[in-house]
Amino acid sequence: MRLASAPLRRICRQHRTLSTFVERDVVILRQKLNQDNIIVTKPLNPANKISTHKGDISHADIIGKGPRDLVTSSAGHEYRIHTITLAEYVSLTRRLVTPIYPADANLIVSLFDLHPSAANNAEKIEVLEAGTGHGALTLHLSRAIHGANSQVPKPAPVSEGEEDQSVTESGNGEHQSDSDNALGAWKASRKAVIHTIDISPKYSKHAAKIVAGFRHGVYAGNVDFHVGDVSEWIKSEHVRRDSEEPFLTHAFLDLPATHDHLSAAASALKKDGTLIIFNPSITQILDCIQKIKRENIPLFLDQTLELGNNGSSGGKPWDLRAVKPRASSKNQPTEVVPESAKSSGSESLDESITRDPAQALKEAKSEDPNWTFVCRPKVGERITGGGFLGIFRKMKDTARP
């Protein structure tokens, strides 16, 4: 027993050390007598302090303590220290735009059905997020693919004598070059990448800071940040890769004019890849369906979900279909479709706009002036607010003649 207890004690000591807060950690403080009084710290720095109406709290007093330990302010008020979760981090950190709430972000990630693998023969996962915003979904996506990538190489150490010398006059330049080369090689070898793009440099920079600030940037290396128009970025990626072949496993669009980017997104999406669009209004989802039908974009609508306020809903399904009423169809000649001409599964034109073939409605062609939409919640009453997700899948490029 003594032989076994020594290693066990070492493991326990190591665990206890790793469970204490260190410099650059972000933690949550809750007042002991008022749990609703929450403070999210900046990255811990021994020289800094938190000033509140109940006294100051030194970062140095937090460093070295563990989760649920108490720290006392200068006025004698006790606060309990907590490890910050991802959900708390994206919801409580300073924001420039409204974030995608954790429940909604988790739903979106689950809809992509990601299965990352670090195996050499595993297919590379590339996910596009257009509309970086606060970086909340970026972090959730990066966490989902994190297992596919090896650890980011650490920067080369710099000695004290080199820190104050210029790069051109010391070996620090060589160290920096080696670090850059190692990082570049690591990025090229990644098995999973999140490409996130925002039209605003300000929002993109802030989101990058948010991603890098969570747990010492553990998920930051999986993400490439871009600034600009998403359609132009996709075109530039095709040029950079010297190929017109699709390269995206999945894509998410959270943009004011989503329908303007559907064609570009579809061109970069691999067959059977998932394209999820977020819009505040159901009519914007309808605009996307009309665009797909009108321009024969090789996408079909898989499902439509409504999100609740502040992430309160797991996604209520909506019945959203382009249809032609029976009364209107009576005046039209019946077209007999040969069995050999029918598409299988959900890649047919009819299946791309309906999820309920039992309905006594005839699907309309896009050029028919009499076509309209069924647009209603599938069950229960409508939840106010939130937004809508349109989940599309990529057909074969030749699936829509």
TrEMBL record:
Its EC number is 2.1.1.220. Transmembrane segments: none annotated. CDD domains: AdoMet_MTases. The keyword Transferase applies. Residues 149-181, 311-367 are annotated as: Disordered. One of its GO terms (molecular function) is tRNA (adenine(58)-N1)-methyltransferase activity. One of its GO terms (cellular component) is tRNA (m1A) methyltransferase complex. InterPro entries: SAM-dependent_MTases_sf (IPR029063), tRNA_MeTrfase_Gcd14 (IPR014816). Keywords: Methyltransferase, Transferase. GO terms for biological process: tRNA methylation. PANTHER family: TRNA (ADENINE(58)-N(1))-METHYLTRANSFERASE, TRNA (ADENINE(58)-N(1))-METHYLTRANSFERASE, MITOCHONDRIAL. This is tRNA (adenine(58)-N(1))-methyltransferase catalytic subunit TRM61. It comes from Aureobasidium melanogenum.
